[in-house]
Write a structure and sequence with these properties.
single chain; elongated; alpha+beta; two-stranded antiparallel sheet; 4 strands
């Protein structure tokens, strides 16, 4: 889990602008396998918001729910096109998490095991 924490903590530093509003109460509530998905999403959001003055963006929560990634945020003072582009990027990332092992980031599949939904690759599925 320490490795999970280190990979995810790098996102706070790399995307400081998006995390500057307040620290997340529980941090990023996901495994490190989704770190690359989140990094890509956060970079995309930064690109969308780059030249928009007076825009506000706040990440509210990042977690796993029903086996896939959930990214909750609030955006203000953004043109409709920018808000729609962010929404599309978030939706695409959440959908991509259905096929990305939450533990290691390899190709995986969403399945239920012992009553819990999760995305795992073959190697991590034995855990």
């Amino acid at each position: 889990m320490a490795e999970d924490s280190a990979r995810l903590d790098e996102l706070f530093v790399k995307h400081l602008r998006l995390f500057s509003r307040r620290p997340l109460p529980f941090g990023l509530e996901v495994h490190a396998g989704w770190a690359d998905l989140l990094d890509t999403l956060l970079s995309r959001i930064e690109t969308i918001l780059h030249d928009i003055p007076d825009v506000s963006f706040e990440i509210l929560q990042v977690k796993e729910k029903f086996g896939t990634l959930r990214f909750y945020y609030r955006v203000g003072h953004a043109p409709d096109a920018a808000a729609a582009a962010i929404r599309q990027a978030v939706n695409a990332t959440e959908e991509a998490s259905r096929f990305c092992c939450e533990r290691c980031g390899a190709s995986g599949r969403l399945a239920t095991k012992d009553g819990w939904m999760r995305v795992r690759c073959r190697a991590c599925d034995d855990d």
